[in-house]
Amino acid sequence: DTGVSQNPRHKITKRGQNVTFRCDPISEHNRLYWYRQTLGQGPEFLTYFQNEAQLEKSRLLSDRFSAERPKGSFSTLEIQRTEQGDSAMYLCASSLLRSGRGLNTGELFFGEGSRLTVL
Amino acid sequence: AQSVSQHNHHVILSEAASLELGCNYSYGGTVNLFWYVQYPGQHLQLLLKYFSGDPLVKGIKGFEAEFIKSKFSFNLRKPSVQWSDTAEYFCALDTDKLIFGTGTRLQVFP
Questions:
Q1: Fewest beta carbons less than 10 Å away: which of A75, B36, B46, B67?
Q2: Residue B39: which of B90, B109, B76 has the closest Cα?
Q3: What is the pLDDT at residue B26?
Q4: Residues of B in contact with A41 (CB under 8 A)
């Protein structure tokens, strides 16, 4: 148990519907990341937060995707008007940003993922 | 451009064979590198990490990796693999978020 919880674990939806995924990070972690993974590929960066601030959103990400982390704790990832190409595993990870010997992201702790299937 | 390349897409070995998985990166900043592993049906978990200092990094389960700055490489090694090492292995570069390679699928047969 990594401590990062994602819900739902599986979601099947019809094309055009909206879906929302939730991520609960490890409680003391200030960084939260969303990635997408398809079969045979590595995790693809989507967006990340430091506390409640969204620091970056991938330029490859459609405007149909939006993410929030309203109180710097849990986060939601919403996909509007889903398309078949959105079918993937959506991964959430959290970390504790470290400083000292150079700023670095630190170890990312991943959740089990939320699998989306768009019919 | 920031990128990570893993050239070995699928590796098949017998138990007790030695393993080396390639990882090359492209990045102009301070280099922090990771290897993550994903066992079948499980979440990604950290194998080892390099932040600075000794370029030879030891991780869990007998894995190690060597950072060679001149070659922009961070190859993963294990002297003798086990069937339980069957998994997907991902190299990642820290650019204030992690950029992952496409992964290497390792199959170990008894």
A1: B46
A2: B90
A3: 93
A4: 102-103
